[in-house]
Amino acid sequence: MPCRPLVTGTFLDEITHDIPSQNWGASEWRREFELYRQIGIDTVIIIRAGYKRRCIFPSKTLPDQLPVYDDLAELFFSLADEIGLKVFFGTYDSGHYWQKRTWWKEVEINQAFLDEVVERYGHHPSFAGWYLTHETGKNHAHIIDLFNGIGGHCRQIKDLPILISPYPQGSKQLGEDALTLNESFDHWNRIFEATRGAFDICAFQDGQVHYEELPRFQEGIRELGDKYNLTIWANVESFDRDMPIKFPPADWRNLRYKLETAAQSAEKIITFEFAHFMSPHSSYVSAHRLFDRYREYSESLAE
């Protein structure tokens, strides 16, 4: 069923792969999680618990880690337990093995890592799902093997809903490597067919195709979701890919358009990523204004 054009879930990016750290501690995260509950966000998604040599907790299974000073996973789970949020836990991305097509090594590392995650955090009532962190725009880099191997292991050790958030291989971002919408649908039809049971929810990113393409893209993904019995969410990006710098908060006019487009076909809208790009607590001043505009809009819908 279509949803309201409002954000009800957000990623948490504390590996800070391509956006800067805000250097938040426990008090700042508490303030942020309390805000989520107040404005209707009920789900937080750890986009990756580990990337290359960095991890959000002191893992015993990941090789050659950089020092870990704080257990952010425990902080997120504990706050979510207390405040009443759901947590989807993101897997590990080596940044190496799967790009080298050594997909089985990527799976093996994740299997040991996720066993450790369940041992450490599986008791938390807020542990509500998994997020498969490997992102792709098409059927390549053994993505089917990764989804099946890692998603299948998540299913075995803690059977919860499993989410993916891929991207369209669109011309707005990928130039000569872009696919047409129909070519993208063909790729994802084949991926969905070959990964039945590996995940339950698909939330496509929306920033790689032009705005005028979004209605047809969202509609086509909805059709594939119905075909393969997948729940379709939308990852409405709250940062701007139109500017020559990476990455400022989105223009409110563009974000509103994307929210209203996504709401026509998605069952839930999540965003990458509220803390940096939409929060009144963000280090980006323009995020404060984006929050003001969003709050005014959400209040108008309630009238």
Tell me briefly what this model is.
The chain has 303 residues and is an alpha/beta fold.
Task: Give the key terms.
41% helix, TIM Barrel, 303 residues, alpha/beta, eight-stranded parallel barrel
Word description of this protein:
With 303 residues, the chain is of the alpha/beta class. It has helices spanning 26-39, 72-83, 103-121, 143-157, 171-174, 181-194, 214-227, 252-262, 274-277, 285-302; strands at residues 9-12, 43-46, 50-51, 54-55, 86-90, 92-93, 127-131, 162-164, 201-205, 231-235, 269-271. The chain has an eight-stranded parallel beta barrel with strand order 1-2-5-7-8-9-10-11. The model has no long low-confidence stretch (mean pLDDT 95).
β content, as a range?
5-15%
CATH architecture: Alpha-Beta Barrel
In total, the number of strands is: 11
Order of helices and strands: EHEEEHEEHEHEHHEHEHEHH
Q: What best-fitting shape do the alpha-carbon axes yield?
A: globular
- Report the top-level CATH class: Alpha Beta
Report strand order across the widest sheet.
Answer: 1-2-5-7-8-9-10-11
CATH superfamily: Glycosidases
What Rg, in angstroms, do the CA atoms define?
18 Å
Overall pLDDT confidence: 95
What is the total number of structural domains? 1
Q: Biggest sheet: strands, sense, closure?
A: 8 strands, parallel, barrel
Between the first and last Cα atoms, what is the distance in angstroms? 22 Å
Number of helices: 10
Estimated helix fraction = 40-55%
- Tell me the CATH topology: TIM Barrel
Content-based structural category: alpha/beta
Q: Which segments are poorly predicted (pLDDT under 50) over 5 or more consecutive residues?
A: none
